[in-house]
Amino acid sequence: MKKVAVIFGGQSTEHDISIITALSAIIRPLRLRKQYEVIPVYISKTGTWYSEPELTDVLTFQTSRIDEILQKAKPIWLEMGNGLTLVKGGLKTTKTRIDIVFPAMHGTNGEDGALMGLLQMSGVTYVGCDLRSSVIAMDKALSKVVVQTAGIDVAKSIHISKREYQKKPNYFIDLAKALSLPLFVKPTHLGSSIGISRNSSYDELTNALEVALHYDDAALIEEAIPNLIELTVPVMGNDMPRAGLVEKPRTDPDEFFDFSTKYMNQGGKKIGTQKTSQGSQGYSELPANITKELYARAEKTALAVYTALGCMGTARVDLLVDSKTDTVYFNEINPLPGSLYAHNWRQAGVAPVQLVEELIELAIERHAAHQELDHSFSSNFLRQF
Ligand SMILES: Nc1ncnc2c1ncn2[C@@H]1O[C@H](COP(=O)(O)OP(=O)(O)O)[C@@H](O)[C@H]1O
Ligand SMILES: [Mg+2]
Fold it and tell me: Of 141, 194, 297, 319, which has the maximum CB count within 10 A?
């Protein structure tokens, strides 16, 4: 049986969401197949790695049992070299060689490429976006630049590093005056609406930037898209990606999602009589009740974004639409969507078990293609010294 390590938790604001993704969207369906030996690898909030059988039960994490388990458990460490081996100390050291890693970490130190770098160095097969695409995807400025060169519309924005801003704050505020109000200010690498503000005057920008740069070392100032409809599209595949259903999360044009609306299912009022679904963004229309033409354009844009960023496995593309002009703008991409966006794939005809299996197959395919590349190059360079 192939050994699949599911890595979750981690030092990120999305630690708890990662536990749900791992336990409900990955480990549970994988175990139903009985084709894989599933090994939970939990990274605590302080950054220690553990692998204990009880760490696959959500109840463990809902009670103080987790503290008891971690107190008794021996931490694990990694052995790398042509693959990945989990090593656990104790009376007798045990070693478990892993065949495939299924990353389930959201946000900083996980989804942002940090974990993928570690996995890539070890040479193990891993599911989802690779190091390069994860880094670009989790950077709201860089991803927009890359996507724009592929001919996809993005909101007009300026990108500011904290270091530069501290040297010449007025320069950036003056630069922003070329953009039309209202303006969104966002930390470049964060999610869950942390540190984001919508500003109706240029005077508010100084304070808004201070907040954003308190959380991150870079920020964006970005024009607001008017007459807003938000759409989100999960995508899956390597060279031939396909879209799931185009989904319309609940929106209020004068507000934007905060952490609780997204994840705690609050404020989930139903939209008219349309069919709604409780995804990781509260209630949504699934599929989105929009014109066929706009639906097709959203799908096409999502696929173009995914390809332009070099994503593999799966990702979710978030779009902003000006409903007066029907212009579709790329907003952001999540290289590891919460719960793999399984509710959307299920309605699109891909059952949760099929989803995780397909992602593992795509990982194996990607790994094989990577192995085929020639990583050696002989030269006489050293002889010259
Ligand atoms: N340029 C924009 N125009 C209109 N609304 C925006 C814009 N940027 C962000 N928003 C609103 O703010 C929300 C959060 O911004 P987003 O960039 O998606 O950050 P996060 O990573 O926190 O989800 C979006 O879902 C949308 O409602
Ligand atoms: Mg968003």
Answer: 319
What is the 148 CA–ligand 2 centroid distance (Å)?
A: 18
Angle at which helix 169-176 crosses helix 205-215, to 10 degrees, equals 120
Tokens of 358: 């397909």
Task: Output the CA 287–ligand 2 centroid distance in Å.
Answer: 18
Whole-model pTM? 0.91
Whole-number Å distance, alpha carbon 194 to ligand 1 midpoint, is: 11
Mean pLDDT confidence for 230-249: 97
> Which is higher by pLDDT, 64 or 276?
64
Ligand 1 residue neighbourhood (C-beta within 6 Å): 155, 184, 186, 191-193, 196, 222, 224-225, 228, 230, 256-257, 318, 320, 331-332
Dihedral (Cα; 289, 290, 296, 300), 10-degree rounding: -90
Nearest CA to ligand 1 atom 14: 193
Mean pLDDT of 70-99: 94
What is the token pair recorded at 14?
Answer: 């999305």
| DSSP assignment letter at 33 | H
- Domains in the chain: ranges and CATH: 2-128 (3.40.50.20), 156-223 (3.30.1490.20), 226-335 (3.30.470.20)
Read off the pLDDT band of 270 (50, 70, 90). Answer: very low
What phi, psi does 185 have (nearest 5°)? -115, 130
Helix axes 140-149, 292-308, angle to 10 degrees: 110
